[in-house]
Amino acid sequence: QLLRTCADLFRLVPFLVFVIVPFMEFLLPVFLKLFPEMLPSTFETESKKEEKQKKKLNAKLELAKFLQETIAEMAKRNKADTG
């Protein structure tokens, strides 16, 4: 939670420009399109949170499959070397 809060504080710094410069808030959608991770975590929708979690889970599953295949190949090599 502390890391997320610190990251949110750093993300709020660019918003100071939008507050200080008059009529800059009209360009906010453009900047959000260019930099989608600019918004703090409190502005994330549930669907985006779920999508991020799914991507992380898929990446973890792919890594686990890769490691399992690597270990299986290593076991085959060791068995062939000793056999």
Automatic annotation (TrEMBL):
Keywords: Membrane, Mitochondrion, Mitochondrion inner membrane, Transmembrane, Transmembrane helix
Coiled coil: none
Phylogenetic lineage: Eukaryota, Metazoa, Chordata, Craniata, Vertebrata
Protein name stated in the entry: LETM1 protein
Membrane disposition: Single-pass membrane protein
One annotated GO molecular function: ribosome binding
Keyword Metal-binding: no
Localisation per UniProt entry: Mitochondrion inner membrane
Pfam families in the cross-refs: LETM1_RBD (PF07766)
GO biological process, one term: intracellular monoatomic cation homeostasis
Organism in which the protein naturally occurs: Syrrhaptes paradoxus
Gene Ontology CC annotations of this record: mitochondrial inner membrane
InterPro entries in the cross-refs: LETM1-like_RBD, LETM1/MDM38-like
Primary location group: mitochondrion
Domain Letm1 RBD: 1-79
Record-annotated membrane-spanning stretches: 12-32
PANTHER family: LETM1 DOMAIN-CONTAINING PROTEIN LETM2, MITOCHONDRIAL, LEUCINE ZIPPER-EF-HAND CONTAINING TRANSMEMBRANE PROTEIN
